[in-house]
Specification:
This protein is an alpha+beta fold and 86 residues long. The chain has helices spanning 2-8, 11-22, 27-31, 38-50, 69-80, and strands at 25-26, 54-59, 62-67. The chain has a three-stranded antiparallel beta sheet. It is elongated and about 50 Å long.
């Protein structure tokens, strides 16, 4: 759970998730949307993969990323247990 919160704690990583919510993208397509270096985008994508928030599929020379909502569902389920009952 800690890696999940670490991944969500960064504005760039949240931005990447917003992009992937719309459609799958390659690392290059994602990098074009940000004013940071490609190695930095790779680092952000790696953290998102480690947290299970994105899935990478290699297609030829390119890696396409897609969002993994299962992890979000599990996190929300965990958080809902703390909701007070009235």
């Amino acid at each position: 759970m800690n890696i999940l919160f670490k991944a969500l704690n960064d504005e760039t990583r949240r931005g990447i998730l917003e992009l992937l919510k719309k459609s799958d993208m390659s690392a290059g397509e994602i990098a074009e949307q940000f004013n940071i270096s490609k190695p930095s985008i790779s680092h952000h994508l790696d953290l998102l993969k480690q947290a299970g928030l994105v899935v990478a599929n290699k297609e030829g020379q390119f890696i396409h990323y897609s969002i993994n909502t299962t992890v979000m569902d599990e996190m929300l389920k965990w958080m809902m247990q703390f909701k007070s009952k009235k």
